[in-house]
Amino acid sequence: MDMMKDAMSSSEMPMQGMDPAMMQETLEALSACMQACAMCADADAAEGMGRCAGMCADCADVCNTMMRMMLRMHGWDMQVMSSMMQTTIMMARACSAECKTHAEMAEHCRMCAMACDQAVMAMERMMGSMSGAMPRA
Amino acid sequence: MDMMKDAMSSSEMPMQGMDPAMMQETLEALSACMQACAMCADADAAEGMGRCAGMCADCADVCNTMMRMMLRMHGWDMQVMSSMMQTTIMMARACSAECKTHAEMAEHCRMCAMACDQAVMAMERMMGSMSGAMPRA
Amino acid sequence: MDMMKDAMSSSEMPMQGMDPAMMQETLEALSACMQACAMCADADAAEGMGRCAGMCADCADVCNTMMRMMLRMHGWDMQVMSSMMQTTIMMARACSAECKTHAEMAEHCRMCAMACDQAVMAMERMMGSMSGAMPRA
Amino acid sequence: MDMMKDAMSSSEMPMQGMDPAMMQETLEALSACMQACAMCADADAAEGMGRCAGMCADCADVCNTMMRMMLRMHGWDMQVMSSMMQTTIMMARACSAECKTHAEMAEHCRMCAMACDQAVMAMERMMGSMSGAMPRA
User: What InterPro entries does the database record attribute to this sequence (chains A, B, C, D) (predicted)?
Assistant: First the structure.
């Protein structure tokens, strides 16, 4: 489903220099990251990995909120969006780093770290392309 | 803050037989339950209590969604609201039962079970008072 | 990404008769529905369609919670899961019905109704296959 | 309910210089802001105020995520927390500013702006007191 592409091409809103394909890719990376983090937090808890569980649960919520903010185009404020995207990048990096410390023994952590890294890459590409439209905080 | 009371008294929407004070009380019980569940899930994870962590994380999300649905009055569909409220009651009861099995050794579980029980009581009162307006599923 | 398939095949939890491919498909349908609903609610609001906006915002939250509950396998309680799935089906049907009343004039409503219908179908298939494992409420 | 105070006083985690009473106050302000924003977004939508609806829906999600991150103490990473808190302050300020442009004609906007302002004040006090523990981004 290419919702973002369809929505943006049919929209009359000024899209502030954003590439719909890049938006779609970022949404998918955030959604995959959110799902991997929710599963990882659940598995961590059963193994007593409290720090990883907490960070993954946080990362799931942050990615979810970032995704919803991207989808609500009428509410876009470029400064807020930019700040939230930088927070999401920082969160996903921290979560990935934590997961990597036990990726050898826990498959869910290996998959979660990968999903976090992909989300970071997608968001960084998007920040780059928006640099004209979005002020760095 | 008595938002619900103010909003409902100034609203021109038919409130379908609901008592604003009861709504407000239910919102507060759901909010407290969500917070207690989020904290309990976090603490459980550090102690390797995977089932309790999973149920508390679920209960936090369910209570949060129930609360938001109550606040979005223009979207109310009485059948959906009633079904969601019954699901929330069932979720909070299951979470409370799980927490009670280790309430003696974990203070966060004791507090979480109490918050769940209070949310159940508030929702049951509300379901009772709405029985005219809300169809039982 | 086939997280659910990998996670379930490597898991030692009794999966209670669930087919991982069907789980994955349902997760994807819920995620797409959540995204379509969030976008539709945003567009509705700009057009003054308050009822549709409220129902879509509710449906986005309900799908999101359902998805997270599916991902947290250690917290599964079959009665609660079944009740939440029935609520989600009811919510997505109500949201689809509302969106269809203005699908001719609003592309976002047409897409949202389609995403809701696909989520309903995926969940109904899953409920069917789980009928041995999950008690009907 | 003074969950945070109880939890922090019984916790053996290093609390990194945070005052439990201030934490509790901030949680309550975030919860009230989330609720006011969800209600305001719903009412805005019925009145065709698309920008206000989008910003309020975003602010509800951001406050909710901030609140949950505060409650999950095992996942605390001071850099991420600080960045998220700054984003939440920026979001609540932007939402308040938007709401104030129609606070005269819409009671829900007046209440929402007030709740946003209180959340900003609580978070700023907390940022101030944590300045030793939390690095500014």
Answer: Csp_YhjQ
User: Domain range holding D87?
Assistant: 21-129
Report pLDDT digits (tens) over A31-70.
Answer: 999 999 999 999 999 999 999 999 999 999 999 999 999 9
Reference A63, options A29, A99, A40, A107; nearest CA is A29
Provide the domain count of chain A: 1
Q: Read off the tokens for D56.
A: 């309020």
Q: Is the pLDDT of residue C74 over 50?
A: yes
How far apart, in whole angstroms, are the C-alpha atoms of residue C6 and residue D33? 40
CA A114 to chain CA centroid, Å, is 12
- Assign residue B73 the CATH number of its domain: 1.20.1270.360
Q: Please report the number of interchain residue pairs, chain A to chain C, with beta-carbon separation below 8 angstroms.
A: 74
Which residues on A lie below 8 Å from D78 (Cβ)?
A: none
Rounded to a whole number of angstroms, the CA Rg of chain D reads 16
Q: Considering only CA atoms, which of D103, D134, D104, D133 is closest in space to residue D117?
A: D103
Q: Which pLDDT belongs to residue A4?
A: 60
Q: Which residues of B90-128 are buried (b: 16+ CB within 10 A; e: fewer)?
A: bbbbbbbebbbebbeebebbbbbbbbbbbbbebbeebbe
The interface predicted TM-score of the complex, written ipTM, equals 0.90
Contact B31 D36 (CB under 8 A): no
Check CB contact of C130 with chain D, cutoff 8 Å. no
Q: Does B37 touch chain A (CB under 8 A)?
A: no
- pLDDT score, position A12: 47
Residue B78 lies in a domain: yes
The three-state secondary structure class of B17 is: coil
Using CB atoms, pick whichever of A45, A51, A57 lies closest to residue B50: A45
| Domain assignment present for A4 | no
Alpha-carbon Rg of chain B, whole angstroms?
A: 16
Give the torsion sign (CA, B105, B111, B114, B119). negative
Rounded to the nearest angstrom, the minimum Cα separation between B129 and chain A is 34
pTM for the structure as a whole: 0.92
Cβ separation D39–B108 shorter than 8 A: no
Closest CA to C68 of D69, B42, D48, B60: B60
Q: Which residues contact C21 (CB under 8 A, 6 or more apart)?
A: C5
> Helices then strands (H, E): number in chain B?
5, 0
CA-wise closest residue to B34 among B104, B122, B127: B122
Query: Is the Cβ pair A46, B41 closer than 8 Å?
Result: no
Q: Is position B27 within any domain?
A: yes
pLDDT for C8 equals: 61
Show pLDDT as tens, one digit a residue, over chain D (137 residues). Answer: 456 566 665 554 444 567 889 999 999 999 999 999 999 999 999 999 999 999 999 999 999 999 999 999 999 999 999 999 999 999 999 999 999 999 999 999 999 999 999 999 999 999 988 776 555 44
Give pLDDT tens digits for A76-129.
999 999 999 999 999 999 999 999 999 999 999 999 999 999 999 999 999 988
